[in-house]
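quick one before i forget lol
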Amino acid sequence: MFIFLPLMAALCVGGPLPETPSFFPEAPEEAERPGRAATEVRTDVGWVGPSQTFHVVVAITPDSQWHVYWKNPGASGGPTEFEIRVPEGFTVGEPQFPRPSIFRSDEGNTYGYGETAAIFIPVTAPEILRDGTVEIEVTTLWLACNKNCVMGEQTKTVEVSTNATMKGPLHKDLQLSKWEEALPKPLDGLAGGIVTAIGSTIYISGESQLRPIRFIGVDQKGLHFEPNSEMIIDGDSFRLPVPVKLDFTAARGDTIVVEGLLLFGRKNTDPSYAVRVEVNSTTNYHNGEGN
């Protein structure tokens, strides 16, 4: 979850084309960190041009032996969330989280990060810009847990150069490339990847030799994920039924968006894919018709 807060920013008129800086963030110091984690904030562009979409990248690093949580913490914990302040005319999209680890406990599975995780937050500039700089403020809120849990909050700002006519280049440093690689890919990037909604079950299909195959969903108002049904496997092909409990009254609408991650293998570097399907109260749910 994030909160988008418009913020006026002064722009300097005129000036040369901004240079493309190099950026290699250092791991924040762990000593005396009350929230048991710390953040660093950067962007993935050299500068920003009119109508350009770029990313504010928030890297959160928990202390050794501690972990923070994905946007769905699972059986316990609390989600990592953001409050974003951007200049007037800029818009903010949904944060993109990397594949989380699965932590097992007596309460059940939880999902999060025991090492540095970089969340990519898309931001789009307005159609009209002037040469200069703008400032973006990011407040990150998290719950860090080990044997006990503590709340953490940190506010960081990042300055972005602007150009009135030209879109800026993407950074190409190794750290950023590594973080981008950890982000889930679109499901249609998987061979045969497709998701359909039939009645109160979501069906995810595709082809892969990697095992195991798991799905973790994002609970929301009006949506609860039931235990996964048995997967159907035929060679490399699979079909995974995901039962859901839907309450359109609680969702306050005729459509509920079901979202989650399809995970292959056991390592954080193994592939993951973003799953998203809309379920309509009249066509999908009551009549049992797929998308």
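fyi The longest strand covers residues 132-145.
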